[in-house]
């Protein structure tokens, strides 16, 4: 497939419809009827457990050999669950809606009881980023960033209040020592960890609203504004006082279309090469999965942090949610048109 990194910054390369037609025979392995909207979903680290928000319920599944088996469901409260994530290397997961976070133990799923909760009296949660390396849950609470640390229980130990509007996106880099936030004030704030605390080291002003600001490695992140025909790529310039600079822009098909609810995901996994049952070497493969209009695009992150387009899956609705397994083999989706949870086996060239 084509390489969508553009070295000549005067011209942006377009992901055209012809290039977006998949040459691969991805296999749909399973369909589970799900009428209520799935707003968020995720695999645990070893891909054995899958969680999905279904209205005000959290549904938990076993996942094995490309098939989901229903395990349990828990009711968060009366409102729709807007965020789910595994924490502490998948020993627990958290769910959130409105002003409340609940933490659940994988070992205690059958009794349907959460182990602890965090509640905001006046403000509302808007987005999250999880750092297992730092044992951190970072939350956007309207225009404030909250840092939660686990010490027998989850405690707030730091706030950063730099945005003048709600925060809609948070993302850690691969090493989890740099964090970016995007707010409705059209600012990307870049924070770095110094000892235990986080400090803002750079602010980037952008021209449009968006909720897709995602790191793809340690020193590169992408930003796709709402209703923008461009996706922008920023790279850390070591020779320029270590600040992030715009390095590239990619012309997308989704120009002018609603994309404020779109998702993006970055994964990295190891590939083992064998010859006569002897392991020769292990390499890393990195993927960016993101939504553009009614399509899910899959890119491979190659040398120099370039994005190489792999394939796309096209749906009949822009209301899509998806999660890739951490070995890159399976994609689980939900879309408004089919109202099915679908398990798809992904083929690569």
UniProtKB/TrEMBL annotation:
<protein>
    <recommendedName>
        <fullName>WD40-repeat-containing domain</fullName>
    </recommendedName>
</protein>
<dbReference type="GO" id="GO:0016226">
    <property type="term" value="P:iron-sulfur cluster assembly"/>
</dbReference>
<dbReference type="GO" id="GO:0097361">
    <property type="term" value="C:cytosolic [4Fe-4S] assembly targeting complex"/>
</dbReference>
<dbReference type="Pfam" id="PF00400">
    <property type="entry name" value="WD40"/>
</dbReference>
<dbReference type="InterPro" id="IPR001680">
    <property type="entry name" value="WD40_rpt"/>
</dbReference>
